[in-house]
Amino acid sequence: MSLSDLMSSFGLAVFAEVGLVVFFVIFLAVLARAALAPAEDMRDAARLALDDEPRHAPVAEGGPS
Known about the structure:
There is one protein chain. By secondary structure, the protein is mostly helical. The protein is built from 3 helices and no strands. The longest helix is centred in the middle third of the chain and has 24 residues, at 13-36. The radius of gyration is 23 Å and the shape is elongated. 0% of the residues are buried.
């Protein structure tokens, strides 16, 4: 029994198929998020690298000051 016979008997092709399906699902989720995001959010994200002023998240009422 050769090494190639041994490895082919393990059925390792299923790992490649699962990886492809996971990649495809994540790709579709990213594509849907980009397509369905509001235009203003996309413009803000496009300008992030060019903004000189740092952006800070708003502080909730009663939160740390």
